[in-house]
Amino acid sequence: MRLFWLLMSALGGGLILLIANHDSGRVFGLENSAFAATLYLGLWAAVLIVGFLGSGLRIGDVARTLAFWVFLLLALVAAYQYRYELQDFASRVTAGLMPGSPMTTVSKNGQIHVIVERSSSGQFEVIADVNGTRLRMLIDTGASSMVLSDEDARAAGFEPERLRFVVPVATANGTTVVARARADTVNVGAISRNDIPIYMAQAGRLDQSLLGMSFINTLNGFDLRGDRIVLRD
Q1: What's the pLDDT at 194?
Q2: Which one of 54, 70, 100, 150 is at 20 to 30 Å from 182 when CA atoms are compared?
Q3: Which residues are CB-neighbours of 47 under 8 A, at least 6 positions away?
Q4: Dihedral sign, CA of 74, 77, 81, 86?
């Protein structure tokens, strides 16, 4: 307790000096703001010193405890500083374990990049989220719209029986008709769109859902880089 009051007296004296020298702007050659910051840090240092000494712990135990908290603080600061690189690394690991998983990176200016690796079939397939349902879709820049297969449409909560298949479309296998609808949400990695037009294929007409230009046109752009396609938002 004697040490505590000595420290508090020293800090109190410093506070009085700070108030008394307010007009001059300096205390012991330091600017008032710097001297005030020193007093603030001194207060916390006094609390820590008295707390450790009053706990009865040995110096070695105190040193190990301080080292642990300093290491933890530095680790948190490092994680924050390299958060974008760590996010990119985590996305790459996920994509390697789950083919089709989009890799999301965020640049320092806040621009979102979603990277999709070419699949073993030679095409760009991505796991997208439509109305809260994860669907594997083919990124098709030749398709004017997003089109869901009958199976995927049902999984995403649509009821094809209640839709009108009256919109004619041309496909590689000839002309067919699809139904027009709207998706509440479509997410590809960190890229999210709401209330977006979407089409439903008739049963047996489409093997895999398509992520077409009606979604891609909402982006800032996209780049094809070898075995990767990068969607920029």
Answers
A1: 92
A2: 100
A3: none
A4: positive
Cβ-Cβ contacts under 8 Å for 119 (sequence gap 6 or more): 99, 100, 125
Q: H helices within the chain, ranges in order? A: 2-20, 32-55, 59-81, 83-97, 150-155, 213-216
Residue 18: band (very low, low, confident or very high) from pLDDT cuts 50, 70, 90: low
Residues 5, 11: Cα–Cα separation, whole Å: 10
CA 226, CA 206: separation in Å to the nearest integer? 27
Question: pLDDT tens digit string along 164-203?
Answer: 898 888 776 678 899 999 999 999 988 999 998 999 998 8
Phi, psi of 187, rounded to the nearest 5 degrees: -120, 130
What is the dihedral angle through the alpha carbons of 81, 86, 88, 93, rounded to the nearest 10 degrees? 180
Kindly report the number of other CB atoms within 10 A of residue 34's CB atom: 12
Name the CATH code of domain 99-232 (choices 3.40.50.620, 1.10.40.30, 2.60.40.10, 2.40.70.10). 2.40.70.10
| Domain ranges across the chain | 2-81, 99-232
* Selection from 220, 215, 219 nearest residue 199 by Cα: 215
For the question of whether the overall pTM of this predicted structure is more than 0.70, the answer is no
